[in-house]
Design brief:
With about 240 residues, the protein is an alpha+beta fold. It contains seven helices and seven strands; from the N terminus they run ααββββαβααββαα. It has helices at about 20-30, 35-40, 95-100, 115, 130-140, 175-185, 190-195, and strands at about 40-50, 55-70, 70-75, 85-95, 110, 140-145, 165. It has a six-stranded antiparallel β-barrel. The longest helix has 13 residues, at about 20-30.
Amino acid sequence: MEGKNISTHPDVPGEPKRTGTAMVETATATIQGFSPVNKIHQHLRAFHFYGHDMTRQVEVHHYCGHQNEEFRQCLIYDGPHADARLIGLEYIVTDNLFLTLPDAEKPLWHSHEFEVKGGFLFMPGVPGPVQRADLEKVAKTYGKTIHFWQADKCDSLPLGVPQVIMALTREGQLYENLAHGVEKRFGVSFEKERENRAYMTGPAHGIHPLANAGGKGLKTVLRETECKPVDAVPRVFV
């Protein structure tokens, strides 16, 4: 089987944007502030696979901002272009913050050491020494990722249940066609970058055994349940 390059995708259905809509967008962009989005300061390109199916591998583009030195949050798109689709999000925490998580939570998070040291996670267009100064920090972190749009299925709209996503943790997992395609399009060499990053280290406490789904598969399943009525919610009067 082969992985999917989802940087090219089917058009999202719907009428073309009208002039009136464009005018409103121009006005609101001038008047309003976009502080949360304006905190985005870096573009990280990587590979993901579905937590329950390693054959479903996709190329993804993270647009990230720091909340502080130990926590960053990223919007995930299926490409780096203006018409890219927002398909998910990822939270990234340091080893220290990860260790504070309940054990039941830890399997939802994946380690970044292998994909960083392997050269698979990189900042397009940023000189090697500059990006390595930050990626040596990323190599020590964990990420929690959810994809809402199963773009590898070429769905024109975000269908299905959001799924937990994992990252590469060892050799032999990544489809060669995906790797070669990215190297060609971005003018990078994973082998060369792997040599440049050999000095990097992972989490200070080692990769936690419960991370990366504890070595198992994780799949989100929707279950029907009773909806708690408003009368059952305690009312607080101020």
